Amino acid sequence: MKVDASLLEILACPVDKAPLRADEAALDGAGALVCTSCGLQYPVRDDIPVLLVDEAVAPR
Question: Do residues 55 and 42 lie in contact, with contact meaning Cβ atoms separated by under 8 Å?
Answer without folding.
Answer: yes
